[in-house]
Specification:
Blueprint lengths: L1 H12 L3 E2 L2 E2 L2 H14 L12 H10 L6 H27 L4 H4 L6 H7 L4 H13 L5 H14 L10 E7 L6 E7 L8 H8 L5 H8 L8 H7 L13
Antiparallel strand pairs: 1-2, 3-4
Length: 237
């Protein structure tokens, strides 16, 4: 009985600790709540025609070609709230990394910024956290790629895809056609990915996501999808 009591007390004493490190459990709980909201509608904003979309059409009474936009608007409202919360956290403690909140809570603020229009503003903070091992560096690489994509430039690590709505020639339904955003020095991208901490090649990464690994040049993007490349006068975020 004494042994059981000792073990229970040991667990209580080490709640919120890992190898002697004391975590901010209040902040960790807040971050857990934020990431749950970050993913509330996100799985539904890039749906392809199929059973899930058909079920949602019946459930909420919105035409299939409006489903993605409907959930995108709902998620945008949540993202705005989450961004305000994360800004307040940054102002108070800086980037809440692994030494403060442990993993995976140390990734929450990364995802909120990644899903915002403020990447350019907060990327230096994210990169600093990565260099200090407070955040996995492959996430820093992912944000760097998105920042470059947002500016209409070639990405470095091959983490970003882009999509556009097209009409399926057979079913006549609208669907998303995806392509890999142009990559700088494509022949060396897998070496860069390995250095950044990715465990997969660009081909394996694309396959895991179910995305086509076909290459496209920035010139082709500008010609075929001009709205995806901001003008030189425009600065995203």
């Amino acid at each position: 009985m004494k042994r059981v009591f000792f073990l229970v007390m040991l667990l209580v004493c080490y709640a919120g600790r890992s190898w002697g490190v004391v975590y901010d459990t209040v902040l960790k709980k807040q971050l857990d709540s934020i990431i749950a909201e970050d993913q509330r509608y996100r799985p539904f904003i890039a749906l392809q025609p199929g059973r899930v979309m058909d079920s949602l059409v019946k459930a909420i009474g919105i035409p299939s070609d409006q489903i993605n936009d409907h959930y995108a608007r709902l998620q945008d409202k949540i993202d705005s709230t989450n961004l305000a919360l994360v800004k307040a956290i940054f102002a108070k403690v800086g980037y809440p990394g692994s030494s403060l909140v442990g993993a995976p809570a140390n990734e929450v603020c990364f995802y909120v910024i990644q899903h915002s229009a403020k990447i350019d503003q907060y990327f230096p903070l994210i990169r600093k956290a990565g260099k200090k091992h407070e955040l996995p560096y492959n996430l820093v690489a992912m944000m760097q790629d998105r920042n470059l994509k947002n500016k209409g430039k070639k990405q470095i690590y091959g983490t970003q895809f882009a999509g556009t709505m097209v009409k399926d020639p057979v079913t006549k339904e609208q669907r998303i056609e995806w392509f890999l955003w142009p990559v700088k020095c494509y022949a060396r991208v897998d070496k860069r990915r390995k250095r950044a901490g990715f465990n997969s090649s660009i081909a394996e990464y694309a396959a895991d996501l179910g995305m086509p690994p076909k290459k496209i040049t920035l010139r082709q993007v500008r010609k075929k999808f001009p709205w995806m490349v901001p003008s030189k006068k425009h600065k995203p975020g």
